[in-house]
Write a structure and sequence with these properties.
The protein is mainly alpha-helical. Helix content is 78%, strand content 3%. The protein is built from 10 helices and 2 strands; from the N terminus they run αααββααααααα. It has a two-stranded antiparallel sheet. β1 (98-103) and β2 form a beta hairpin. The chain starts with a helix and ends in a 20-residue tail after the last helix.
């Protein structure tokens, strides 16, 4: 009975974890992201501790690094809006007073006043929604920061406790899965940043080739939008195409949709992510792409991290099972007289 007590406590722990997930469903995404970020920051905290910083100071410093990373991602949009606001207003002043749309013999005239009225109504709706959501967002950001700090402060004890629940014969497998999870999470965040950098580089070339003036500004906005799931740079391209249609330049609208949509919105996800996944996460590009797309469509923004992570852990589990069963990974025939499975 004594030997089974830890596993009883493990079952109780799993039950409470399930209850917590149900009760905290509205912030489950925030908790998940906090766990993944803290998981990646543990080596940094340990490095600071090795330089004689206290656990509390090292955890706080690592949490500040995470906060600075978020600010670095979002800051370019704010800076660009501040620096280019007058140029945006000048472009808006070039819009015609009315646009005539003809389709299948039907003619419809849209005036600028009507567009402005619709735009103001939309802005008011967005403003009200943002004002309503702002307290929730602030609470979630605060929760995110506290969780990252708390996990860094006491994460080692949690890890040792969970590892202690694993039978001794399988702890090497648990350690391997832990290492794969850390490597995969690091690779996912690196891939996200690399995709944004690649989008910026491609955007510079594409927007310059299409003849735009503010090439660096447009490429920067496209790169930052790459961090937004599902929509990404497509929002920028759609806005640019709508402006060209409004001023009557249909050729430019078609070019920005076709060329920009392919090279800026679609190509980085297809070209950069799968290739770097093999190098950084030791995960075939096809498997990473399946995890990325499947997770995104199934779970939303959380799926960008959870999808590839689950696929990577599945691949690692298959490798561990193959090693346990002594399966030849090269596909060759087994040595004569060797059983694929040892019987006790």
């Amino acid at each position: 009975m004594t030997a089974s007590r830890p596993y009883v406590f493990g079952g109780v722990l799993a039950l409470f974890a399930l209850l917590a997930a149900v009760m905290l469903a509205d912030v489950l995404g925030t908790v998940f992201f906090a766990i993944t970020v803290a998981y990646l920051l543990v080596p940094l905290r340990r490095g600071l501790e090795a330089r004689r910083a206290s656990r509390w100071v090292a955890s706080l410093a690592a949490t500040v690094v995470a906060a600075v990373g978020v600010v670095v991602v979002l800051a370019p949009l704010v800076v660009i809006l501040f620096l280019r606001l007058s140029d945006i207003l000048d472009l808006a002043a070039l819009l015609p007073d009315a646009v005539t749309v003809e389709f299948l013999g039907m003619v419809e005239m849209v005036t600028l006043d009507e567009v402005v009225a619709v735009g103001l109504g939309l802005l008011q709706s967005v403003g009200r929604a943002a004002a309503t959501a702002a307290p929730v967002v602030l609470i979630k950001l605060t929760l995110f920061g506290f969780l990252v700090f708390a996990l860094l402060l006491s994460g080692d004890a949690v890890g040792r406790t969970l590892l202690a629940l694993v039978p001794t014969d399988y702890r090497d497998a648990a350690t391997a899965l832990n290492e794969r999870a850390r490597e995969t999470l690091f690779a996912i965040y690196v891939l996200q940043a690399a995709t944004a950098v690649g989008t910026f580089a491609i955007g510079l070339v594409v927007f310059w080739a299409l003849g735009y003036d503010y090439v660096v500004t447009l490429a920067t906005v496209a790169a930052v939008l790459q961090f937004i799931p599902i929509v990404g740079p497509s929002v920028l391209l759609a806005a640019m195409a709508a402006y060209h249609v409004a001023v009557g330049d249909l050729v430019a609208a078609a070019l920005v949709v076709a060329v920009g949509g392919f090279a800026v919105a679609w190509l980085p996800d297809i070209l950069i992510r799968p290739r770097l996944a093999k190098e950084t996460a030791d995960l075939p590009g096809s498997l990473y792409f399946v995890g990325f797309v499947g997770g995104l469509l199934s779970l939303g923004p959380v799926g960008i991290i959870a999808g590839p992570l689950v696929v990577a852990l599945l691949a690692e589990s298959v490798d561990l099972l193959g090693a346990e069963l002594r399966v030849d990974g090269g596909g060759g025939e087994e040595a004569a007289g060797d059983d694929p499975v040892e019987t006790p």
